Amino acid sequence: MNFTSDVKREIISRGISGGAAGRAALSAFVRTSGLLSVREGVPTFSIISETAEFFTALFEREFQEELSVARASVDRMSGRGKLIFELSGENSAEILYALGLVKRNGEFSRGIRKKTVSDRECALAYIKGAFLGGGSCILPSDGGRTGYHLEFVFPEQKPAEDFRALLDGEELLAKTVRRSGAFVVYVKSKETISDFLSVVGA
Predict the structure, then answer these.
(1) In 3D, which of 179, 124, 174 has the Cα closest to residue 149?
(2) Rounded percentage of the chain residues whose pLDDT exceeds 90
(3) Pick from 24, 42, 53, 127: most CB atoms within 10 A?
(4) Which residues pair with 85 in a beta bridge?
(5) How far is Cα 193 from Cα 196, in angstroms, rounded to an integer?
């Protein structure tokens, strides 16, 4: 068990409230750990993550629908098995619209919809969802070879920049960099990382 897993487990143990906050967390989780696509003309998504069980339960609670298991996968780094869940069916477009991931015309939203993070509770839920889906946190090792590092990985630039602005609103000043085709929002300040842990209740 590493520090990232400890923080994620702590966030999950405290839970995320339902309603708008629950949808904000789901939206962030799909953005960071999911893949948006179109199948037979209908927008859909799939997710793969060690914390997917928590979000499948949250998803079912919010939308009264189950995510189906598409296939199994093995993490190359840890060797642990993971399940890949996907959303399909006639309600997928409406659900993705409710999550702020699709516009009414069927196009995928480029950034984070303001309505999704309309108040502080939703903004904090989004931050928690982004960390659970694509975040990691590293503390210095005993040998001092690694420093403090917090990051969130997004597949696209616009949501990454919007997320950095969301962190700025909580006075969690971060930077954005492109890495291997993804966009990483990161923090290296010990004080800011401490503030982040306090904000997410870990």
Answers:
(1) 174
(2) 57
(3) 24
(4) 47, 69
(5) 5
